[in-house]
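During the reporting period the student researcher (J.K.) took over the structure-prediction task from the postdoctoral fellow and processed the backlog of single-chain submissions. One of the processed entries is reproduced below for the supervisory committee.
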Amino acid sequence: MTGMVGTVTGTVRPGTLGEVMIAIRGGVEAFYALPFDGEEVIPAGARCAVVDYRPQEASRTVYVTALPDVP
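J.K. obtained the following structure tokens:
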């Protein structure tokens, strides 16, 4: 999971679970998302990168950071 790119579908912000869609296993799956640094706000529609994934702690939850917009 680490290093994969997804699209935010539910705003990611501190103190609440966001949601991202990630292409995996030939389809697209939804994952809960938290900001990796604990402070970043990533709006719906933004691209993000998975920085950490700890399935033993909270399955289907990834820690993400925003990717810059590329023209």
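The committee noted the following: The chain has a mean pLDDT of 94.
J.K. will present the remaining backlog at the next meeting.
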